[in-house]
Design goal:
By secondary structure, the protein is α+β, with helices and mostly antiparallel strands. It has a single domain, classed as Hypothetical Protein Pfu-838710-001 (Beta Barrel). Helix content is about 25%, strand content about 45%. The chain has six helices and nine strands. An eight-stranded antiparallel β-barrel has the order 1-5-4-3-2-6-7-8. The longest helix has 14 residues. This is CYTH domain-containing protein. One of its GO terms (molecular function) is inorganic triphosphate phosphatase activity.
């Protein structure tokens, strides 16, 4: 399961200040900060059959690597997102212009569910995103999480919107730990809890 807090970052808030915050620096582990260029495409049928069943199918390039992702059974409240997720690494040759659901065959029951929904229909690109992710890992002593900031664009059809988002993703430990980090940061910076995923915001551009 993926568990993360999402915040929209205010226009006048400097991301450097968040990452250099004294509290964040005090719980940061010794791994290097990462900058990851991401290009993600979400696929569905033309009538969004997967979305109707609250399933997201994504192919994303992260620097020089490709990852296929399925997300389902998601909930969100006050910026806290919880959902089932599976990721599979892909080779570039495994990623055609329009992928088939078969690449997720190793994923078990959720793959079977997708096949039942698609009923042989083709996948088409629906929403596209390009952004740069800046991330560090945090260790509170009780939990490990990733703090990341995404800056870029979400595109749907011929429309696009900017994205400037902060995420705190729990890797191990308690949800209470990332909530405490989020509360502390939102008290000091212009951060607004965001219940909509990037994909939901993208769908609003084409509907």
């Amino acid at each position: 399961m993926e568990i993360e807090l999402k915040y929209l970052i205010g226009e006048n808030t400097e991301i450097d200040r968040i990452f250099n915050d004294d509290f964040i620096q005090s719980i940061r582990d010794d791994k290097d900060e990462e900058m990851i260029r991401m290009h993600a495409v979400y696929y569905d049928t033309e009538d969004d059959a997967l979305a109707e069943h609250c399933i997201a199918l994504r192919i994303r390039r992260e620097n020089d690597y490709y990852i296929g992702t399925l997300k389902w059974d998601g909930t969100s409240e006050n910026g806290m997102h919880r959902r089932q997720e599976v990721n599979i690494p892909l080779n570039e040759e495994d990623v055609p212009a329009v992928p088939k659901a078969d690449i997720f065959q190793p994923c078990g029951e959720i793959y079977d569910e997708i096949c039942r929904i698609l009923k042989g229909r083709k996948l088409v690109p629906r929403v596209e995103m390009t952004f740069v992710r800046r991330q560090i890992r945090l260790d509170t002593g009780k939990s490990i999480c990733v703090l990341s900031a995404d800056q870029g664009e979400i595109r749907g059809g011929d429309r696009e919107i900017p994205v400037r988002e902060l995420e705190i993703e729990l890797l191990t430990g308690s949800e209470k730990e990332i909530m405490a980090i989020g509360d502390r940061l939102s008290a000091g910076y212009d951060l607004k809890p965001e219940d909509r995923s990037k994909l939901e915001r993208g769908f609003r551009l084409i509907r």
